[in-house]
Amino acid sequence: MRQRDTIEAFGLSANLPTGWDGAIFRREVDLESTAAEGVENPTLHLANFALPPNRGDFGSGAVEVMGRRGVLVCLVEYGDDSVGTALFDHRRPAELKADDFATHTLQRPQAGQGGQQQFFTENDRAFCLYTVIGSHRMRNVLTPVANEALAGIVIS
Amino acid sequence: MTVLVVLLAVVVGLLTLLVVSLLRSHAEILRALHELGLNDVLDPDADERDGVRSDADIRTRPGVATPRSSDVRAASDLLGNTPDGGSLRVAVSGVDHSTLVAFLSTGCLTCANFWEAFADPDRRELPGADTRLVIVTKGLENESPARLEELAPRGVTLVASSSAWDDYEVPVAPYFLLVDGPEGAILGEGAAASWDQVQDLLGQAMADAGLDTKGGSSRRSRARGAQRVERADEELERAGILPGDPSLYPGGEPPEARP
Asked: Which phi and psi (to 5°) does residue B39 adopt?
C-alpha cells in the first residue's frame, strides 16, 4: 500500500514526515459569543504523536498528552486586518533554532516543555507559528525534528 | 450342495455391488472436491511438486464478508477530510501505538450500533494500554457532512476518506482493522455486528500477536517500553546528562562526530 503524505485545505498544505499526524481545520464561529460572522481562519497542526481530536488552536488538549520527545507545530492564521501590522511584519522563519525555545513562552505551561512563537506575513496572509517541544532541555535534539516538519509547509 | 453354491454366488454378487457403489460414491466425492478447488485435500504434495497453488472458490453466507486475499498485510496511513472540509492525516504506521480503524457508514443499520457505542466514553474501552480508535467513513462526496457532524463522537478522531476504503479493500461496513504501529502491519480484521464482538476479537488478535491487552505486564508491551525510554531520559537529565553528552559514547563522542 502506498503511504499518503500531504494534507491540503484552505490554501495551506503540509508534507508530513513518517509517523506524524497532521490536520488543517477551520472552526465555526459561535455567533452568540462574537460579533464575527462566518467561519474562523484556518489552523494547521502537526505532531509526531497521536493528535487528540479535541484541541485548541494553540495545542491545548495536545500538549498535556505529548511525551518528552514530542513536537507540536501550530500554524494559526489571523484576519485580514492583521496583515501589514507591525506584529506580523516579518518573514516566515526558514528554520527554528534551539535557542528560540523558552519555557516561559508556552500558551499553556507544562512542566519541562519549551515553546516558541513567531508572527509573520506570507502571500498577504498573517500567521502565528507556535511550536512546542516536550522537553526544553532536549531542544538541541528536538529542534531538527520540528524543522523537518516545518520544511513541508506551503502557504498559497 | 447346489443350494450352497447358489447362496455363495448371491453373496459374492451382493458384495460386488457394494464395492462398486462405494467406488462410485468415492469418485463423486473426489469430483465434488475438485469442483470446490480443494486440491490440497486431494493431493497435499501437489503444491510442493508442481509449484502451483490455485485459490479455492469459497462462498460465505449471505451478509458475511468474503475474506480478502492474505497478501494485504501492510498498513497505510489514513488521509482524508474532516466533516467541515478540512484535511487530516492519521499516522498508523511507524508510530508507537496500535490503532483500531473502524470503517463505518452513516447509512448502514448495523453501523448505528457502533456510532452509539463510540459516543459513550465508558463503552468504547479498547484492548491495550495505548490503542487509538479512528473512525473512517467514505469521502465527503459519498457521505453527508451534516450527518457526519451529527454522528461524530466527541473525543474520537474521524476521517472521511474513500481512498482509505480502497487502500484497505474494505468489503463491507462496519469493518474493523487493528494495526500494529511499530511494525506497520495489520494484526487482525473483520466484520462484526456488535461492539462487544469487536472487543473480544481485538483482545484475541492482540494476544495472538504477543501484545499487552490490558496495559499490564507483558514482555512485549511497547507502551511500557516507551515509558521506560521516558523514565531513562528523565533520570539522565536529572543527572545532568543530555543528548550528545560524551559519557553516553564509548569513545567519548557521538559516532557522527568521529572522523
From this structure: -70, -25
- Minimal C-alpha gap between B102 and chain A (Å): 16
Domains and CATH numbers, chain B: 78-208 (3.40.30.10), 222-257 (no CATH)
Q: For residue B84, give the nearest of A5, A25, A135 by CB distance.
A: A25
User: Which of A5, A16, A20, A21 to probe the B interface (max B CBs under 10 A)?
Assistant: A21
Query: Would you say residue A84 lies in a domain?
Result: yes
Low-confidence ranges of chain B (pLDDT < 50): 47, 50-56, 72, 216-220, 258-259
Question: Between chains, do A18 and B72 touch, taking CB under 8 Å as contact?
Answer: no
Determine the distance from the C-alpha atom of residue B104 to the mean position of all C-alpha atoms in its chain, rounded to a whole number: 16
pLDDT of residue A101: 94
| Count, residues in chain B | 259
pLDDT, tens digit, 9 for 90 and up, residues A92-135: 999 999 999 999 877 777 878 999 999 999 999 999 999 999 99
Q: CB contact, 8 Å: B242 with chain A?
A: yes
Q: Residue A142 pairs with which residues in a beta bridge? A: none
CB atoms within 10 A of CB A115: 25
The confidence band for A71, taking pLDDT boundaries of 50, 70 and 90, is: very high
For range A7-16, the mean pLDDT: 96
* Predicted ipTM of the assembly: 0.89
Whole-angstrom Cα distance, residue B143 to residue B160?
A: 8
Whole-number pLDDT of residue B26:
75
Taking residue B257's Cβ as centre, other Cβ atoms within 10 Å add up to 11
Give the 3-state secondary structure of residue A147: helix
Q: Measure the CA–CA gap between B230 and B224, rounded to whole angstroms.
A: 10
Interface residue A59 vs chain B (CB under 8 A): no
Rg from Cα positions in chain B: 29
Q: Is B163 on the interface with A (CB under 8 A)?
A: yes
Note down the domain range covering A129.
6-27+39-155
Within-domain flag for A95: yes
According to DSSP, residue B154 is labeled T
Q: How far apart are CA B83 and CA B89, in angstroms?
A: 14
The edge-to-edge listing of strands for the beta sheet with A12-15 is A6-9, A12-15, A153-155
